[in-house]
Amino acid sequence: MDIEALRQDTPGTANRIHLNNAGAGLLSRQTLKAVTSHLELEAAIGGYEAAGQERDRIDATHGHIARLVGSRADEIALFDNSTHAWNAAFYSMTFKPGDRILTGRAEYGSSVLAYLQTAQRSGAEVVVVPNDESGQLDTTALANLIDDRTKLVGIAHVPTSGGLVNPAAEIGRVTRAAGVPFLLDATQSVGQFPVDVAELGCDMLTATGRKFLRGPRGTGFLWVRPEAHAYLEPHVIEVAAATWDGKRSFTWNDGARRFETWEVGYSNVLGLSAAVQQALDLGMDEIGRRTLDLGARLRDQLDAVPGITTHDLGRQRCAIVTCEVGTMATADVAAALAGRGINVSTTDPAQTQFDTEDRDVHPLVRLSPHYYNTEAEIDRAVEVLAELAAAR
Ligand SMILES: *Cc1c(COP(=O)(O)O)cnc(C)c1O
């Protein structure tokens, strides 16, 4: 990868050291252009007419995403974020009293809320699978917990609050052997390193556009294994999802499109499409190698600074790095970094309560480099953090 050329094509790199790709990655010029030129076309000739003119490129988006995750185009549905994609899959399942939903300690807050609401409505039970001693999901415990009451295993691949990579492929082997549906929240992993649905053995997968995929905000997608339609009935229906026979019945449209809405922000879709094409062109193996290397460099350097402690769990770690800087308040650390042109974010204990219980160190500073960051930027961020730690 020609990092200098990639940075030339990423306007934001001239203004900031952007270490908040787990929040939102920086758009490339190509993605920005895909979004703005479609908006301009809508303004110039009309929204429906613009969509008509760009129909082939719009429809190609599903195919690009399919290539990214190793699926077929008709197994992909587009959404306006990952949460809505996840909701579309989850709320399309039915649960009855005594059914069990198994989840992990790294689960995203919105998903946990959905489990709790569903448990309240249906009488199903939510069971949280423990972590092993490394802090990743304990797959032996998972296998032991699965029984004929288990209707779903819902797991976050990479949590929002740390550098853990959950053993998704191992979880997939367990769920496939047991014949239990596996819903994988891959919001932080897609775009960061290779994610292949066949390899992972999941049945439904969700991701967002704006994080490591570097797409525009307001984009996301769902992948559904065709066999999963046997137990999924979309929780809403509309003209994009089904065909009315003109009398008193309807048929669902083929494949994952039955989860989509008719109205879509096409400038965003074309932006997402451009971002995915760029990831495919660069190659997810290459992207993953460099991104994980930069994450490891950052974590190793921070671990060597007196007064700084990193708190990432698990055997396999990624480019999300969480740390404490002495006793300095996390928000103050983030503000001090922002004052020096370094973008980071902080974890939210209320949204990651299982993890908060386990580590009890939130909020943490969250740094998340991407392939277009330089080694010098990583070193600079460490230098500033070391100064903050020394000033304590
Ligand atoms: C950001 C995030 C989500 C939600 O994605 P949106 O696109 O904001 O809806 C879900 N899960 C994880 C692990 C996340 O980090």
From TrEMBL:
The keyword Transferase applies. InterPro entries: Aminotrans_V_dom, Aminotrans_V_PyrdxlP_BS, PyrdxlP-dep_Trfase, PyrdxlP-dep_Trfase_major, PyrdxlP-dep_Trfase_small. One of its GO terms (molecular function) is transaminase activity. It holds the Pfam family Aminotran_5. Keywords: Aminotransferase, Pyridoxal phosphate, Transferase. Coiled coil: none annotated. Belongs to the class-V pyridoxal-phosphate-dependent aminotransferase family. This is Probable class-V aminotransferase.
